[in-house]
Amino acid sequence: MGSYPEGVSSYGCYDMAGNLWNWTATIITARTGAEVGKHVNEIRGGSWYATGNSCRSIGIGEGRAASGVYNTVGFRIVRNALAPLEPGAQPKHRESL
Hints:
It is a single chain. By secondary structure, the protein is mostly beta strands. The protein has strands at about 20-30, 40-45, 65, 75. Strands 3-2-1-4 form a four-stranded mixed beta sheet, with no helix packed on it. It starts with 20 loop residues before the first strand and ends in a 23-residue tail after the last strand.
C-alpha cells in the first residue's frame, strides 16, 4: 500500500491504478473498448495490460458486462473507515450509516 504517495486521491486512497481494472457497480453506456454502445458496468483504474493513457481512477467510458469473464478486471472490497466494527458487531446496511 502507498507505493506512490504523490498519487493519493482526494479521498485519501492509494494505488487505485494498475494490476487490474476495478469493476464498479455504476452502469454506463460504453463509449470506448469492445463494448461500445452497450450498457455495462464501468471499469476504472487500469490493468497490467492497459496503456498509461487509459489508467485513470476517473471514468473513461469503458466497461465490461457482468456476465463476462476477464483476466484484467477485478473488484475491491471497501469498508467505511468512519464506521469501524466493534468485535462481535453486525455490519450495518448502507441506508443506516
